[in-house]
Each structure stands twice: as structure tokens, then as C-alpha cells.
């Protein structure tokens, strides 16, 4: 066999916690922006159309309604409030996922390798404590499908990742973390 023109190890550096249904629903930059906007406060289609326009994204309200339907069908937003306005029902939507619609600076993993190493050591302890608790696995093992590439079972990894993901969301959306961010602002 000929000498390879390139050979190097590529390692997994980040986990993107997205299933196919979610990826499909998010396959439009406007929908990412809608989730970002709704993370600030629940809005109706009308309010959202105005908010997006003032953020430089001018779209017809019918287009916004279509995107809201797609996001709702994918389970990414939910109705938070319904009010009657002049005989019509106005719905407000809130997101159940948090997206951060901007790029991660390249080289983040190099610059912060020490912090990443320390954090991953702490996370390994947490992962161990999750794997010790068997209850959470059952839900994942029920619809476990053998991996077409290794015939193995990745349901435990998925289960652990989801527990971490939900926990991270709860921690970051909580008041204590908001307090931490406020402190960070003062320090700068
Ligand atoms: Zn596999």
C-alpha cells in the first residue's frame, strides 16, 4: 500500500447532544435565532416577528408561525400562555432547550486545556456516580438498538450524557448561576 499523504490522530473534543429530529428542526438559522430570542422571554408570534426585525432579521409573520410550528412539533418550544385578543387566541411560546447561537472561538480547547483537564477529572467522578445508579439506565435500555458499526450498546453513554446535560441546564438556568454571572460582571 502507498504511503499515506496525511496521517494523524483526530480525537473527539466536544459532544453535540442532538438527535436527528432536533437537527432537522434546527436546520434553519432563523429557528436558532427564534430559540435564542425566546430564551430571554416567552413571546407571541407577533412579538417575535418584531424582536427578530429589530435584531436585523426581517421575516413575515406567516414565516415565523411556520417556524414556530416546526419547533413545537420537534418538542423544542412549548406554549406558555394563551390569551384572547379581539376574539382571536394569542399564544406565547417558551423554549425547552437552550441554544447559544454563536461560534466557539477556535483553539478554545488548546487555550483552556488545563481547565478542561481539571473539569473532566471532576466530571469523571460524577459519571462514576451516575453509572452506579442503575435506575436511570432502564429507560434507555428499553429502546436500545445495537450499534450498526460495532454491534455494541451505547445506551449507557447516552444515558449518562443526558443526565449531565439536563443537570447542566438546571444548574445554568438557576438563580445561583445568574448570581455568579452577575459577580463576573463586577470583576471585569
Ligand atoms: Zn458502536
Structure description:
By secondary structure, the chain is mostly helical. It has two domains: 20-95, Arc Repressor Mutant, subunit A (Orthogonal Bundle), CATH 1.10.10.10; 108-187, no CATH class. Helices cover 54% and strands 10% of the residues. The chain is built from nine helices and three strands, in the order H-H-E-H-H-E-E-H-H-H-H-H. The chain has helices at residues 20-25, 29-38, 45-54, 61-73, 108-111, 113-132, 137-142, 155-173, 175-187, and strands at residues 43-44, 77-85, 88-95. A three-stranded antiparallel β-sheet has the order 1-3-2. Helix 3 (45-54) crosses helix 4. The chain is globular. The model has no long low-confidence stretch (mean pLDDT 90). Residues 147, 149-150, 152, 154 line the site of zinc ion. The site of zinc ion (ZN) has 5 residues, from loops.
Q: In whole angstroms, how far apart are the ends?
A: 57 Å
- Rg from alpha-carbon coordinates: 21 Å
Structural class: mainly alpha
Name the average pLDDT: 90
* Largest sheet features: 3 strands, antiparallel
Strands side by side in the biggest sheet: 1-3-2
Which runs of at least 5 residues are low in confidence (pLDDT < 50)?
none
The share of residues in helices is 40-55%
SSE string, helices as H and strands as E: HHEHHEEHHHHH
Strand content: 5-15%
Bound ligands, each once:
zinc ion
How many H/I helical runs? Answer: 9
Amino acid at each position: 500500500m502507498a504511503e499515506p499523504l496525511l496521517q494523524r490522530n483526530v480525537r473527539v473534543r466536544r459532544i453535540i447532544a442532538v438527535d436527528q429530529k432536533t437537527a432537522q428542526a434546527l436546520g434553519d438559522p432563523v429557528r436558532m435565532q427564534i430559540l435564542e430570542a425566546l430564551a430571554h422571554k416567552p413571546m407571541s408570534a407577533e412579538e417575535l416577528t418584531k424582536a427578530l426585525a429589530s435584531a436585523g432579521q426581517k421575516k413575515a409573520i406567516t414565516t415565523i408561525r411556520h417556524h414556530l410550528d416546526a419547533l413545537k412539533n420537534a418538542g423544542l418550544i412549548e406554549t406558555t400562555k394563551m390569551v384572547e385578543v379581539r376574539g382571536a387566541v394569542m399564544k406565547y411560546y417558551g423554549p425547552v432547550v437552550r441554544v447559544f447561537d454563536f461560534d466557539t472561538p477556535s483553539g478554545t480547547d488548546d487555550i483552556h486545556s488545563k481547565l478542561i483537564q481539571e473539569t473532566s477529572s471532576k466530571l469523571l467522578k460524577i459519571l462514576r456516580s451516575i453509572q452506579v445508579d442503575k435506575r436511570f439506565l432502564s429507560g434507555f435500555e428499553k429502546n436500545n438498538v445495537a450499534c450498526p458499526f460495532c454491534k455494541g450498546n451505547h445506551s449507557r453513554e447516552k444515558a449518562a450524557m443526558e443526565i449531565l446535560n439536563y443537570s447542566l441546564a438546571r444548574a445554568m438556568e438557576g438563580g445561583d448561576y445568574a448570581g455568579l454571572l452577575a459577580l463576573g460582571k463586577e470583576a471585569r
